[in-house]
Structures are given as structure tokens and as C-alpha cells.
Amino acid sequence: MNFGTVGTSWITSSFIDASRKSDDFILKAVYSRSEIKAKEFAEKHQAALIYTDLEEMAKSEKIDCVYIASPNSLHYEHALLFLRHKKHVICEKPIFSNTKELKEAFRVAKENGVYLFEAIRNFHSPNFKALKNAIEKIGPVRAANLHRSRYSSKYNEYLSGSRPNVFSAEYSGGALTDLGIYPLYLSVGLFGNPTKISYSANVLESGIDGSGTLTLGYDGFISTIMCSKISTSYIPCEIQGEKGTVVFEDAGVIVDMKLIDNATGQELPVVTYNMEDDMKFEINNFMRIISNKNEEEYLELKELSLLTLSITEEARRQNGIIYGCER
Ligand SMILES: NC(=O)c1ccc[n+]([C@@H]2O[C@H](COP(=O)([O-])OP(=O)(O)OC[C@H]3O[C@@H](n4cnc5c(N)ncnc54)[C@H](OP(=O)(O)O)[C@@H]3O)[C@@H](O)[C@H]2O)c1
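Above: the input record for the complex with NAP. Below: its predicted structure, written as C-alpha cells.
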């Protein structure tokens, strides 16, 4: 499958490096607003074509699928452009700013006979399946404490007076949609649609959440999601059941998982995969769904993206966080 990329930061490099593990992946073209950057990036990753005009890239007959890693608020217009030109789109998380955009983009994808995916690495990793299996052994779930909190180097820039995209309402930034989305995907992927949503955010002067705690109510338990871009957490995630507790590091990558049996206090390691180049799992899934036209799996991913985005939308509404595109 011939790929084009949008965005030249480290995440696009990680995507390309992980994708290259698959024989089906061919990097054909890269886009940057700057010709110099595009040339450097193409050289680094051995891409034959460079573009500085997105419309031209979208028209290219040489590309089947585009990976979009531009700032969040631009995902929608970038994705729509490629979908309208019948290119499959893999868009970085958070897929768009709101569900209105997402529903329209899914409609356009369908109309043009192509697929639209949200790149969310933890959900597609085999360790998510291992987590799901482990939870089946702990009896009824009674609490989930999931989080991702990392002090961002971009916060230093913010404190110095600049406005990095991820700290900006104009660019649809914020802790919940940037980092909280990983534990949120775990919660939604494991437990489904919550009956209650409550988000307490620490809203910065730029109008986005620097940190916050989201609680999701489920039948018989609460899933608590903490996220921050202005401080770092060192505590593991855990899902507590009546018979035992599953503990793991890092809601983003899911590693070092163990199950602690309540009756014996014994720690049982859960077999998990090596997460090196973990983006390869999502890429392989997306390419397989496209190749096999697997509508059932696609529908499942679509619903998950919609549900996750509807929760972050409600969380923002509760805290008066309004993105530039919504003003
Ligand atoms: N899956 C993951 O683990 C992961 C990790 C990090 C980020 N992400 C996601 O990837 C996306 C990009 O994140 P990032 O931190 O790389 O963002 P970023 O540095 O703000 O921007 C990404 C790219 O977009 C272009 N760009 C930057 N500012 C722009 C502007 N004002 N207008 C138009 N284009 C602009 C730049 O490419 P050119 O200058 O070459 O045009 C840049 O390389 C986000 O959606 C983020 O959530 C995912």
C-alpha cells in the first residue's frame, strides 16, 4: 500500500519506522509546509515524492493512504481533503475536535469508498487483549484507576510566554485529548459507554486543561482517569475486581502487567508482548481492514472513536473549554 505522510515531527518518523516492519507498507510521499523540511524528511525516510501543497498531494494517483500527524485542529480539513480524493486516512489521536466533524468525515469516507481510522496505539496492541483476558479472572470489577500524566517540555515553552499547539485552544489542545485519551480509550474499550461523565479540569489561562480528573460511572464501579501535561505520575494503573487486581504500567503502552490474587496475595505475571515499535500493531490492523474490506471491525473502531470523542466533548463542555473551531 502506497503511503503519504502529513507532519514532520518525531511521531511521523515513529509511524514510518514502525510501518516499515510490514512488507505491505511503501512510503511514497511526504508533505511539509516547508520545502527544505520536506526534502530533509523525504531523504531521511527514503520517500520518492515531496509535496508542499496538500491539494496536489491529495490528487496524486501514486498514493493509496495518508497518515496525518498535523496539529489536532487541522486534522479535520486535512482528512476531508484526502477522503474526497479517495485516499484512506489514518489520523493521529485525538481524531478531530468534536463529533460533528467526525460524523461528517465518516460520511465523506463512505461516500468515497475509503476508510478513516483514528491512530490510538494502546487499543490496537496485543497487550490490550491480554488486559481484557486478565480482567475476566478478577471477578466483578469494582474500580479502575487509569492515568497518563507527563510533564511536557512544551509546558516550559508555554511558561515562557509562547503558545505551543498542544497548550492552545485554537489548535484543539489540552491534557485530556492529548494524554487522557489513552486511559479513556482503555476504559471505553474495556467497559463501553459510561452512564455518568464528570470531568474536573485545571483550566490554564490559554483556555485548555493542563490537567484533570475524569470519572466515568459504570454499573457497579467508577473508572477514574487522571491526566496531566504539567506534572508527572509515577503510580501504576490498576483495575480492581472482587477476586483480584490487575496492575500495569503506562496506559499509553501497557507494559509490566500482573494480576494480584486477593485470596492468596500472590502476584501472577501476565504474559505480554514486547512493545518496541508498538505503532506497528495499529498500522497492521488498519492495513488488514482496508485490504479485507472488513466492515464489521471498521464499524467497531468507528463507534469507539465516536464514543471517546463524545466523552471528551462532554468533559470540555462541563469545564467551559471551547476550541477555536467552535467559536
Ligand atoms: N500516537 C502518539 O503516540 C502521538 C505522539 C505525539 C503526537 N501525536 C499526535 O500527532 C499529532 C501531531 O503532534 P505533534 O506534537 O507532532 O504536533 P506539532 O509538532 O504541533 O505539529 C506536527 C506537524 O504539523 C506541522 N505544523 C506545526 N504547526 C503547524 C501549524 N500551525 N499549521 C500547520 N501545520 C503545522 C509541522 O509540520 P511541517 O512544519 O513540516 O509542516 C509539524 O511537524 C497530534 O495530533 C498529536 O496528538 C501522537
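Notes for the reader.
The chain has a mean pLDDT of 97.
Residues 7-9, 11, 32-34, 37, 69-72, 74, 92-93, 119, 121, 165, 178 surround NAP (CB under 6 Å).
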